[in-house]
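input
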Amino acid sequence: MAQFILLLQGGEFSEYSEEEMQRIRDEYYAWSQKLASEGRDLGGNELAGTGRILRKKDGQYVDGPFTETKEAVAGFFQIEARDLEEATAISRECPHLKFKGKVEVREIVVH
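output
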């Protein structure tokens, strides 16, 4: 089995109350539990809405350029699947897609 990371990008959550957000988080948790019951879930987490992007320019480290909110990585899941096709099929059930988010599926290169 290969390992894949599912990068959850964007999503529209600002209109939800804290109570609704908890129900949404529960939905993500239930999906991860389903993956775990199938022996596929290797972990994952929600990421904070703020962070820092560093780059080196003229020998100095500088912040930015910054990622637009709609492209920012909101969280991730790490899963096992036979190949990219199976990982993609699994990703189609990710709750993040219901909230106008995107899921980027990338194979992890294990050395």
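quick obs: Residues 2-107 form a domain with the Alpha-Beta Plaits fold (CATH 3.30.70.1060).
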